[in-house]
Amino acid sequence: MPTAVRLSLFVLGVHLLTLLPVDIPGLSVVQAVSGFLILSFVPGYLLVSYVLDEFTLAGFLYAVGFSVAFSMFLGSAANLLYLGFDTAVVPFEQPTMSIIYLWASAMLSILVWTLTDPNDVRTFTVKFPDYDVRILTLLALVPTFAITGAMFINRYAFNELTLFTIVCIALVPVFVYYFDDRGRYYPIAIAAISSALLLQNTVITTYLRGGDATREFARANFVLQNGFWIPAGTFGSMPRIVTLQPAYSLLTDVSLFWVFKLVHPILFVTVPLITYVLTARYFSKDIAFLSATLYIFLPRTYQIISRNTRTGAAIMFTALLLFVVLDTDLPTRLRQLFVITFFIGVLMSHYGVSTLVVFALFVAYVVNTLAAYLLDGKRFSNLSLRNMALFGVLFFVWYEYMTDGIYDFLTMSFYNQISDALFFTQGSTAVRSINLATESTGGAFGMPSASYEVMFIGHLLLGVFTSIGISLVYLRYFGDGIPYRLDIQRWIDRNVLPGLSDDVLEDSDYVHLVVGMFLFFPLSFGPQVLSAGRTFALVMVIVAPFPILVLRSMRFERIGSKPAVVLMVAFLLVTSGFVSAAATHDVSPQPIIDGERIVESGSTTEQFAYYAGYTSRNTVTASNFLIAYLPDGANAEVTTVSQFIPYFYEGNRRANIQFSRFDGSTKNAEGYTYLSEPDTVTGKNTQSFLGFVFYTYDPLPAFDESNTVYTTGHDRVHYNG
C-alpha cells in the first residue's frame, strides 16, 4: 500500500471515530485536526504522491491548493445535487457533510492504490532538509507569541507581548538571512513570520471586523442555518464563502466565527511560500527569501487580506495558477489539471480578482506570442490559445449563468477600472487619491500621522523601485534577443544583474506575466487611499523580487542586501503599529494594538481610525437589543460612524428597523436614536465621510430631554416621544 494511501486512510479512520457519540477528552482537538487535513491536504497529497517521485515544498503547495479547490468543488456539487433532486437530506449538516468528504477521499485513496503498480519499485521520497530542532522551536515561538499577545490585548488590553513579538518578527528575517548560509531555514522562517502576522491580525479582534468579513460571515452562517445555499449576488455566489467555510466549520466542529479567524490565515501562509519558490526558480535563494519577506511585510497584505476570505482565497489560487503556468517540470497532464483547477478556484472565490487575472493572462499571452515570433531564442508561452479560449468560456459561463447573472456588473466595473485607474488621467484612482490627500486636513500628503506618511511614501517608492527593476530585466531580456543591443546587455550583466538566470532571459511567460500583473499597481491607491489591499497582495506575488533587485548592490559586497533588509525592517515597525503604540502615539495603521489608550485619551482622529477596524462586545450586545426589542418598523437615527452589527444575533424575533441619519436635534418626532461606542467615545455627531479617516462632525448633544431605554456604558439607545 502506498505511503500516501496509508496516511489518508489513517486520517479518514480517525475522523470517522470522532463522529461516534462518545465523550472522550481531547476528541474535539482530534476532530478539528483530522477535519482540517481532509479538506486542506489529503486529496492533493494523494494526487501528488501518485504522479511525482519526490515530495518537495512545491509538491506540498500544490497538494494544499488542489485539496482546497477539490473540497470547494465537492461541496458545490453536493449542494447542486440537493437543489436539483430535492433530496430529504440537506448537505450542510452533520454527519452528512463528513460522510460526503470521507467517501470522496476514500474513493480517491482506493483509486490511487488501484492504479499504483505493485511491482513498481519506485519510492515516493519526502525531500526536505535536515533541520535543527532547537532552531525550529525558536521559529515556532514567533507565531505562538503573536497569538498569545493578540489574546492578551483582546481580553486584558495588555500589549507589551504583542510589541515584543513585532520586534521578533522584524528580526527573524535578519538573523536567518545572515546566519543561514545555505538557506535551509528560509521557507520555515517565511511560514513563521507569515503565520504570526496573519493570525495576530485576526485573533486580536473580539469580533470579525474590517473589509468584507462580517458580510462573508453572514452568508456562510445562513448556509449553516438552512443546510444549503442558492447562488445569488456577488457574495452569495462565491463557493469559497458559502461552501468551503461551512464545510470547515462542520468537519472540524469549530464555530464558524473561529473558522474565519484561524483557517483562512493558515491557508494564506502558502502565498508568501509560493512567492519564495517561484522567485527562487528565476533568481537566487537570497533574493527569493527577501522577496517573500517583503510580500508579507506589506501592511495591507496581512492587515486586510487576513480577514477577507474571498479575496485571500482568490489570491492564493492566482499564486498557484502563476506557479503552475511557469512550472515546466510537471508532467503535462498534471500541469493541465492544475491550471484548470486553480483557474476555476479563482473564479469561485472572487469576481473582481478573477477579472483582473483574466486580463493579466490575456496581456501576457499576446505580448509573449509577439516576443517569441520577433526575438531570437525566446520560448513560446506555456499557455496555449486553447487555454485562453477555455479561460474565457469558463469566465463567461460561471458569471453569466451560475452566479445569478453578475457578468454585466463585472464587465462594466472592469471597463471603468481600466479607463479610470490603469492610466493616470484626472479621473484615475491614483490621481483622485492624491487629490483627496492634499485637500484633507492631515499632514504631508494629507496623511493623518507620520506612520501613515511612511506607509504612503513607502508604497510609492515600492512602485518606483519595482518599475526600475522590471525595466532593467526587460532591457536584459530584449538585449538577449536583439543582437545590436549587446552593449546594453553587457552593461546590465556587469553592473546590475550579474549571473541573471537563463530562465529569465528565455522564459517569455515569466517576464510578461510580471508586466501583465504590474499593470494593476495603480489600483493600490484606490478611492480610499491605501485601501486596495487586494491589489498589493495580488500584484506582489510575482512582482516582489524586482524592488529587491534594485535595493541590493552586486558591485559592493559589503553593502549587498543591507539597504533592502534595513528598509523592510523599518517599514514593518512603523506600519505594524509598533512605533505608534510604543513611541509616537499618533494615528496608527494598526490602532487595535494601542486600543485602551486611544479610547481613554486618544485624539478624535485616532479614535475614528480605531473604530474603523474594531467592534466592541458592547456594540454587538446593543445591536442584538435593537433587533430583539425595538418595535417592528421603528425608526432609529444613527450617525455616519455608528456601528450596527446584526450578524451575530441568534434570536427568533427580528425587528425590521428603519435607520435614518441623525441631524443633531434631540427634539425630533417620536422615534429612537442609537449611539454606538464610536459616537459616545469620540463625542462627535459625524455627518459625512470625507475619505480615509476624515469626517465632518459636530459635538454630540446631551440628550437631557430624552429617555435612555438601553445602555451598555458606551452604547446608548434614546427614545423621543
Give the gist of this structure.
The chain has 32 helices and nine strands. It is mainly alpha-helical and 721 residues long.
Number of domains: 3
* Count of β-strands: 9
Number of DSSP helices? Answer: 32
Helical fraction equals: 55-70%
Strand order of the largest sheet: 4-3-5-9-8
* Percentage beta strand: 5-15%
Biggest sheet statistics: 5 strands, mixed
Q: Could you list the spans in which at least 5 consecutive residues all have pLDDT below 50?
A: 421-430, 526-531
Q: How would the global form be characterised? A: globular
Task: Tell me the structural class.
Answer: mainly alpha
Oligomeric form of this entry? single chain
Distance between the termini: 77 Å
Mean pLDDT figure: 82
The Cα radius of gyration reads 26 Å
Organism: Halorubrum kocurii JCM 14978
Keywords: Membrane, Transmembrane, Transmembrane helix
Protein name: DUF2206 domain-containing protein
Transmembrane segments: 56-85, 97-115, 135-154, 161-179, 185-208, 262-280, 311-330, 337-353, 383-401, 454-475, 510-530, 536-552, 564-583
